[in-house]
């Protein structure tokens, strides 16, 4: 968000109490630092290779190839600082094993998730979704995008519970089943996003940066610097200075940096946020690819909540030495979900069982916060905590929300793309 403000001509100072970029979404290196962070005794065994070979994400997320973050990266030209690899597979859990997510007509017809007749009905459903255009009634087959619920759409194509499960949770990427009784347009757009992202590179709809997600904030910091932004690491924030209910500066090491507007995450201003839940994440180091994935070097696995009697899905993101984030022959699988009980580790057992044997495990439980102050009066604009989803779409929605609160206008991709052409020319490489 700050780099977008820099590109838009705002004067930006970025202060971070940490010694590394990215806050909660940092990649930790070397491996010894991860052991310290999780208070594990001793140091990593020799079997883990060189500590410097590791860049371990604290918050696992992939980028949708056709999603909002990739669009932002292209607009702002941060792509010049990053190299991406396509994630090699997308899987869904159906008791007792995992299956490849069918997202093309060909895959749908080959999938072991459905019987023959259901495959045909699902194929018809995919064709309907691909052709659906809310501005062209001919494509709608009598569906009202603002009124017809997604439950009614599934019924229209006579799709059963398990097809609803993997469609809603592995293609539309909903975390719960609340979407079923909402108007169908959002779900249709989400399935389109998945299919269009998949069509770009073929193996999965997801991308992941070499050297880990910590490369993203560093790329944005470089971009901000090009436009005159200043970045300070290791800068403790002692006080947010207010006058007449409005932010006027930030005090650090006895000095005040004056400002008209302030963007921060919830940890910097706890009296203006509220706790909205918890997320459990387990970073698991493996010496083997995950079983039943065809030995891929990277993948996502979604365990739909219905399959394990929960309200929220469980996610697994797996990356490896192929992405320069682990020592040769090592894999990092990160499990995450929204906490529902007083025993969060028991909640992720179905995912951990898929990963056995696990060489080392680092478990964290993070409180999630949302702002109670939207910033209109105070001019303090607070982000939401990272959720359990394994892609950046909800994070981008939050960035656009902050942008709107700060500027009073919607974040307009087309407008930003026009500005980019004026500034950089037409090159998208």
UniProtKB/TrEMBL annotation:
Residue ranges of coiled coil: none
MF terms in GO: GTPase activator activity; Rab GDP-dissociation inhibitor activity
Keyword Acetylation: yes
Keyword Protein biosynthesis: no
InterPro entries linked to this entry: FAD/NAD-bd_sf (IPR036188), GDP_dissociation_inhibitor (IPR018203), RabGDI (IPR000806)
Example GO biological process: small GTPase-mediated signal transduction
Keyword field: Acetylation, Cytoplasm, Golgi apparatus, GTPase activation, Membrane, Phosphoprotein
Gene Ontology cellular component terms for the protein in this record: Golgi apparatus; membrane
Matching Pfam families: GDI
Membrane topology: Peripheral membrane protein
Subunit structure, as described in the record: Interacts with RHOH. Interacts with the GDP-bound inactive forms of RAB3A, RAB3B, RAB3C, RAB5A, RAB5B, RAB5C, RAB8A, RAB8B, RAB10, RAB12, RAB35, and RAB43; binds RAB3D to a lesser extent. Interacts with DZIP1; this interaction negatively regulates the interaction of GDI2 with GDP-bound RAB8A.
Family the UniProt entry places it in: Belongs to the Rab GDI family.
PANTHER family registered for this protein in UniProt: RAB GDP DISSOCIATION INHIBITOR BETA (PTHR11787:SF1), RAB GDP-DISSOCIATION INHIBITOR (PTHR11787)
Protein name per the record: Rab GDP dissociation inhibitor
Gene symbol of the encoding locus: GDI2
